[in-house]
């Protein structure tokens, strides 16, 4: 049986569950607020820094709980099942801890997708407001190719990619590349969608 009396074990499991659930609520709440405010340095540090630490610590906690409070095993043949050393209340708390920890895992997996979706939406709004249409792209027969970026493109890059790049500088190098890749892809997809939607022709 797990060490300690039943009341002590229930107290420990209850506190473990409260800690994991609080971590998940704190992560998702802060991330949502930072993203809504477009506070990218804070958002990226939270989701690519704090989240990774809490995820690793939660994984270790789940391993400890699973080892200390094993699920009742199946029996083979006619061997009568042995009484479980873990009470039903303890098993319920263990399963809730697993579920709360899994929520952190899911959030860690989905957070970059959520971020890139927000970046794509912001990029689309900028292109809708600033990208010229129609005759702007019809060059005369002797027109020279532009030597500088269009003003709308420079503004869009700075508003989205520039801010993400600035925010990502505080991250470890191995965390910068996935973040920048997802955001750049989202930015270019929004640009292409805008061009196709408005049937802009460059000629």
What's the number of extended β-strand segments?
0
Number of helices: 5
Q: What is the string of SSEs from the N terminus onward?
A: HHHHH
Distance between the termini: 78 Å
What's the overall geometry?
Answer: elongated
Q: By helix and strand content, what is the structural category? A: mainly alpha
Strand percentage? under 5%
Which spans of ≥5 residues are poorly predicted at pLDDT below 50? none
Could you give a short account of the major beta sheet? none
Number of domains: 1
Question: How helical, in percent, are the residues?
Answer: over 70%
Domain Coiled-coil protein 142 C-terminal: 10-202
Protein name: CC142 protein
Keywords: Signal
Signal peptide: 1-22
Describe this structure as you would to a colleague.
- The chain has 203 residues and is an all-alpha fold.
- The chain has one domain (6-70, 86-136, 148-197).
- Helix content is 72%, strand content 0%.
- It contains 5 helices and no strands.
- This is CC142 protein.
- It holds the Pfam family CCDC142.
- Residues 10-202 form the Coiled-coil protein 142 C-terminal domain.
- Residues 67-87 are annotated as: Disordered.
- Keywords: Signal.
């Amino acid at each position: 049986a797990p060490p300690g009396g039943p009341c002590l074990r229930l107290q420990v499991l209850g506190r473990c569950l409260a800690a994991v659930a609080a971590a998940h609520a704190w992560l998702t709440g802060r991330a949502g607020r930072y993203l809504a405010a477009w506070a990218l340095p804070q958002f990226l540090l939270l989701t690519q820094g704090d989240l990774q630490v809490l995820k690793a610590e939660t994984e270790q906690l789940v391993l400890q709980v699973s080892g200390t409070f094993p699920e009742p095993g199946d029996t083979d043949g006619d061997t009568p099942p042995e009484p479980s050393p873990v009470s039903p209340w303890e098993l319920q708390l263990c399963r809730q801890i697993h579920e709360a920890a899994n929520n952190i895992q899911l959030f860690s997996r989905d957070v970059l997708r959520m971020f890139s979706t927000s970046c794509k939406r912001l990029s689309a709004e900028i292109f809708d407001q600033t990208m010229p249409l129609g005759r702007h792209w019809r060059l005369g027969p002797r027109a020279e190719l532009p030597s500088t970026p269009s003003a709308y493109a420079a503004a869009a890059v700075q508003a989205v990619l520039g801010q993400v790049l600035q925010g990502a500088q505080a991250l470890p190098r191995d965390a910068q590349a996935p973040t920048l890749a997802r955001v750049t892809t989202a930015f270019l997809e929004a640009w292409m969608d805008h061009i196709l939607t408005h049937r802009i022709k460059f000629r």
